[in-house]
Amino acid sequence: MSAGLELRDLSVSYSGRPALRGVSLDIAPGRITALVGPSGCGKSSLLRSLNRLSDLLPGCSVSGSVRLEGAEILGAGVDVVALRRRVGLIFQKPNPFPLSIRRNLTFPLREHGLRDRAELDERVEQVLRDVGLWDEVADRLDSPARRLSGGQQQRLCLARALARRPEVLLLDEPCSALDPRSSAVVEELIASLRERYTVVIVTHNLAQARRIADDVAVFWVEGGAGTLIEQGTAQQVFEQPQHELTRSYVQGLSG
Ligand SMILES: Nc1ncnc2c1ncn2[C@@H]1O[C@H](COP(=O)(O)OP(=O)(O)O)[C@@H](O)[C@H]1O
Ligand SMILES: [Mg+2]
User: For the domain that residue 51 is a member of, what is the CATH number?
Assistant: First the structure.
């Protein structure tokens, strides 16, 4: 199941200092949207406001509107725990719990009320297969997750997110801490999530955005804060960029 997001005039500031200003963007369900732009232009800030992780950052304030399937998710009265179940976030550095591979996954599954041992085993296998890890770890499910390679840990983190049956997956530079081979495996995995999930990926890697994104949003720092300068399908943004900055950025000339 995937869900769309509508951002309207979204702004983020830290202790009164604007970091991201006035972003309006539609994120289509079941598609992969890449957020690109030089570092410091507010991409992570945007991502964190979409599952209200921003609530946990001291001094961070978010204004504007974000609708998930038409329902406002900013503001008081939103069930933030339920929201984070629907909208999962994956970070640059894989962060498995300091537990076994199995327990990294049974943890979120138990949250869903699963208790039956056989059913848990079955779901663990299923999510590990979904991320292509099953054959690599089936014989050591009870060993520490942190002994896995970086790429395996990142796939485990994706499996952990998928176990919660999210509708939207937010990925903040999910491949940039990985070696090229693991990065390619994770990238392929992300591409395979299209249609089943709405994927929003921040990437520094324009070649990656070109390979996997359906839609692209380009951010830039203007007047001291990040802002959205161009949005469109990947083809539009890469083949016929409208903005001068986008043109030079996609040609690798600036940013
Ligand atoms: N937790 C934070 N506290 C204070 N300032 C922050 C915090 N996170 C980000 N910023 C600032 O907000 C701006 C945008 O940062 P960020 O969203 O991380 O951009 P990007 O992900 O595009 O590199 C930067 O100026 C950064 O220093
Ligand atoms: Mg960032």
Answer: 3.40.50.300
